Amino acid sequence: MYKESATHIERRGRNFGILGVLIAFIVIVFGITVAKIQTGGFSEGFDHVARPALISQEEASQ
Amino acid sequence: MTDASLHIPARPAMSDQAGLGDYWQLLKPRLMSLSVFTALVGLLVAPGAPHPVLGAASILWIALGAGASGALNMWFDADIDRVMKRTRKRPIPAGRVSPGDALALGLFLTGVSVVMLGLTANWVAAGWLGFTIFFYAVIYSMWLKRTTSWNTVIGGLAGAFPPMIGWAAATGSTPLEAWLLVGLIFMWTPPHFWALALFVKLDYHEARIPMLTVTHGRDETRRQALVYAVGLALVSLATAVSSIGGPLTLAVALVLNGVFVGRAWQMYRRTDADSEADGHAAEKGLFKWSLVYLFAHFSVFVAEAALGPWGGW
After folding, report:
1. Does residue A4 belong to the interface with chain B, where contact is any CB pair within 8 Å?
2. Do A35 and B54 touch (CB under 8 A)?
3. Alpha-helix runs per DSSP H in chain B
4. Is some CB atom of chain A closer than 8 A to the CB atom of B20?
5. Is residue A48 left, alpha or beta, with left meaning phi > 0 and alpha meaning psi from -120 to 50?
6. How far A49 CA lies from chain B's nearest CA (Å)?
7. What is the spatial distance between Cα A47 and Cα A33, in angstroms, rounded to a whole number?
8. What does the pLDDT look like over B116-146, one tens digit per residue?
9. Which of A18, A37, B145, B293 is most deeply packed, by most CB within 10 A?
10. Among B112, B246, B263, which Cα is nearest to B192's?
11. Which secondary structure element, helix H or strand E, spans residue A15, and what is its range?
C-alpha cells in the first residue's frame, strides 16, 4: 500500500494554499472579464465578428 | 584549512518546509494594509466611479504590488535584518525562506501586479505602480537606506504613491489633487517615524543604517519632526481647499493639524532627560496621534465625496 512520505504531508498545507490562490486568481480574472464586457469600452472589434456599432439597425435585425 | 573553520555556525537549512504564512510575512502585510487603505481613498474620491469589480480588482493589484516591493526589500535587507532584534525573526534571517525564493516571489508579483493593473484599469496606473516598486526596492532599499539620513524622508515617497495610483486607476490621469494626496503622506511619514524612533530603542546603528537620530542627534530629530509637521499642515490645508476638500474637510483638518503641530512642538521643546522622566509621553502622544491623523484625514475625503452635492466647495 502506498504510504505518503513525511515531506508530502508537511507540504500539503502549502499545496492546498497555492491551489486556493490559483482558483481565486481564475475567479478574479473571470470577474474582470465580465465587468469589462458589461462596461463596453474597447472590447468591440476584437472578437472576429463585424463591429456592432458599424452595422445598421436593419442589418443587425436580419 | 584549520579547525576554526569547522566551527563557523552554519546558516540554517533553507526553505523546504516554509509555510504559506512565511511567504505572506515576506509581503509586509501591515504596509500592504496602509497601501490598500490610501489607494482605496484615491480611487473613491477621484471623479467618475469605475465598475465596482474593476475598482476592487485594481486595489488588489496595488496591494500585490506593495507586497512585491516588501518581498524585494526583505530579500535585499536580509543582512541588516539578521543584525537587528526587531527583524531577526523574519522569514529569511530565521532561515525559513531562502533569499532566492524571496527574490523570485518579489519579481513574480511585480510582473503580475503591474500587468494585471494595466489590463484591469489602465497603463498610467500600471506605470506608476511599476515605478513605485522600483523606487522602494532599488532607490530606497538598495541605495538611500544605507547611504543617507534622508532615507526616511525620500523612502517615504514610495509609501506615498498608492493614493495617486488609485486615482489613476479610476481616471487614467494624475491631476494636482492626486499629487496633494501624495504630498500628505510624504510629509506625514517623517514625524510619524521619528516620534517612534525617539521612544523605541531601534538598533539601526548596529546595522550601520544612517538614521537621523544617529547621524544628526536626537535634538535635531525633534526639530526636523516639527518642521515636517508644519509642512504637513500646509499640504493638509491645501487639500482641504482643493476640489476633493470642502467645509467638512477643512474643519477636520484644522483640528487634526492643530493637535499634530501642538504635539510636535511639545516634543521639540523637550530634552532626552525630560523624555526619560515621563516615559516618553510627548513622543508617544505624537506617534499615536499620527495614526489617528492619517486614518481620519483620508476618511474625511471619502465622507466629503459621499456627501455629493452637499459636500465640496
Report:
1. no
2. yes
3. 20-26, 29-45, 52-76, 78-83, 99-120, 123-134, 145-147, 151-160, 162-171, 176-199, 212-215, 218-240, 247-268, 272-277, 281-306
4. yes
5. left
6. 22
7. 13
8. 999 999 999 999 999 999 999 999 999 998 9
9. B293
10. B263
11. helix A6-39
Q: Residue A36 contacts by C-beta under 8 Å, 6 or more apart in sequence?
A: A43, B54
> Which of B19, B60, B119 is nearest residue A14 as measured by Cβ atoms?
B19
Model pLDDT for residues B45-95, shown as the tens digit of each residue: 999 889 999 999 999 999 999 999 999 999 999 999 998 888 899 999 999
What's the pLDDT tens digit per position in B215-244? 898 999 999 999 999 999 999 999 999 999
Write down the pLDDT at residue A43: 53
Interchain pair A14, B20: CB under 8 A: yes
Structure ipTM? 0.80
- The answer to whether the beta carbons of residues B112 and B64 sit under 8 Å apart is yes
Give per-residue pLDDT as tens, A8-58. Answer: 777 788 889 899 999 999 999 999 999 998 887 555 555 555 555 566 666
C-alpha cell at A57: 439597425
Domain B14-174: which CATH number of 3.40.50.1220, 2.60.40.1930, 1.20.120.640, 1.10.357.140: 1.10.357.140
Q: Which residue has the cell 515636517?
A: B228
